[in-house]
Amino acid sequence: MMHLEQLPPWAAIIIALFVVIGATLTLLGGVGLVRLKSFYQRLHAPTLGYSYGTLPIILASMLMFSLTEQRLVVHELMIGMFILITTPITLLMLGRAALRRDRDRKLGHDEIVPPRNRPEPPTEEPAKDA
Amino acid sequence: MSRLIPHPVLSATLVVMWLILTAFSLGHLLLGTLIALGAGWSVEHLHPPKPVFRRWLAIPRLMAIVAVDILRSNITVARVLILGPNHPAYHSGFVELALTMRDPNAIAVLAIILTSTPGTAWIEFDQEEGRLLLHVLDLRSADDWQSIVHDRYERLLMEIFE
């Protein structure tokens, strides 16, 4: 076990740089949620945070705890994997819900959406993709 | 083999995951194996379409391409966000693409790739006609996207899964 002060300077610089890069991208994603105009544009903003916003922070954490505990610490990779697998599901559902709303004339339009090519079946269709 | 371990890849991944999250010991190996087998059996009852991996070698290549593309897209989107959405050089819009893939697992992987790329959002997929609706933040022309998705991802995914 090594204390934080004993971290070699090169490692401290790399870790700090990675954390700052990740945090900056995540912050930009958050700013995007405020600045972008339509719902579909805002769908793009949080992806910054979970792709290359998360990765440098995970790498920095792996490097730092591998050095301080003096063994290979890789369970951060699991966090990254779970984020990568689960976040698209939320974004997909939000996108589909917004599309359904905007195709309905009675409700508000955010942006002109392309129509469905074939006529809507009268019965409730099962969910086709997730 | 197939009765006892219905999903060998899934179970093996779960065992490795268990050992990474805990410390390696015989007890944890046994417990992790039990949980992985249990998970395999319960997944078997859900009857998911089983993935068939044809070419393992294409997987690292796809991952490298995706990593580079996501990085590039991150930079583009970050620039859009800094310059502001009203900047005249950018305009966003919907793109309709035709997919030739039919394997549900390959389509799921493509959905993860396209959603993880900041510039593109997967909005809707029509399974019968193979039509995919994307929303692109920095749109140049629809033809570009058809060829980007087809040449960069779809061909490799078809090599892996079909």
TrEMBL record, chain A:
UniProt KW Membrane keyword: yes
Keyword Transmembrane applies: yes
UniProt entry keywords in alphabetical sequence: Membrane, Transmembrane, Transmembrane helix
Source organism superkingdom: Bacteria
GO molecular function, one term: sodium:proton antiporter activity
Transmembrane segments: 12-36, 48-67, 79-99
InterPro entries tied to this protein: PhaG_MnhG_YufB
Annotated region described as Disordered, given as residue ranges: 106-130
PANTHER family in the record: ANTIPORTER SUBUNIT MNHG2-RELATED
NCBIfam families: CPA3_mnhG_phaG
Protein known as: Cation:proton antiporter
Organism the protein comes from: Paracoccus kondratievae
Automatic annotation (TrEMBL), chain B:
Keyword Transmembrane found: yes
Gene Ontology CC annotations of this record: plasma membrane
Keywords associated with the record: Cell membrane, Membrane, Transmembrane, Transmembrane helix
TM region positions: 12-41
An example molecular function term from Gene Ontology annotations: monoatomic cation transmembrane transporter activity
Localization terms from the record: Cell membrane
Lipid bilayer topology: Multi-pass membrane protein
InterPro entries linked: Cation_antiport_E
Principal subcellular localization: membrane
Entry coiled-coil feature ranges: none
Family: Belongs to the CPA3 antiporters (TC 2.A.63) subunit E family.
Protein name: Cation:proton antiporter
Upper lineage: Bacteria, Pseudomonadati, Pseudomonadota, Alphaproteobacteria, Rhodobacterales
